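User: My advisor asked me to double-check a structure prediction for DUF975 family protein before group meeting. I don't want to rely on an old file, so could you generate it fresh from this sequence?
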Amino acid sequence: MKRSSKELKRYAKLALEGRYGIAIMGVLAAFGINLLGNLLAGNLFTGEFLPTMIMSQIFLFILSLVTGILSAGLYYMFLNMARDREFGLGDLLYFFRNHPDRVIVAGFVLALIDLVVSIPYYWYSYTVIPGNTLEAQVEWMGRSMELMLLSIVLNVIVTLPFVMTYFLMADHLDMGGIEALKASAAMMKGHKGRYLLMQISFIPLLFLSIFTLYIALLWIVPYMQMTVTMFYRDLLGELDQDIYEDHRENKSAWDQDDFNSEA
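Assistant: Sure, here is a fresh prediction for DUF975 family protein from the sequence you gave:
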């Protein structure tokens, strides 16, 4: 059954009930280490010389492969949470203990795609001089933003078939990186549009987070990740068991019993 974004979000909220704390800590750990790595790269490789810029990009590329293993562990943690299994922050290290090479292979392919589609942006940013006048600098900034946006859009389009890769590797210990990428592409056939619409539906929440100085992202990002997890489970047919529907009905029944007893 193909569930709507609204239904998947409802399942996500139920799965996160009483578990937001650990979900937030998991997201902070996975993304925080990546942020620290980027800050480190900025401090280690300073200057505008081409060799320094190349070294900076190589460092970030290697960093993305390592942090990718941690991010894959985050997928595993959310999958356990969604299935009501035992979970914890230790899940973030799951792939370090279970054939991390396959995650590195898949991550290498995805990082390579990101690098290739970003070449026009990097080339323009590093080779074109902004100019001395305000008008020239504004024009340079505008063109840089256009190329950055183009690279992001291209990256989303090209990598869209592979969004289920880490989930598949979490479910299949014997599945290699390339095999997982192919399996994800096969799984996403006929569902890419639905996935995009689901992601686009979060834009209003992301926009509103600006008014909280982005603090609301601590809750929004786990919510988005859990919704994607429910999307994967929907593709597998697991949600047809209606376990979350049963949970909701039971909770309503408990609330009604409490109300009657108080009355």
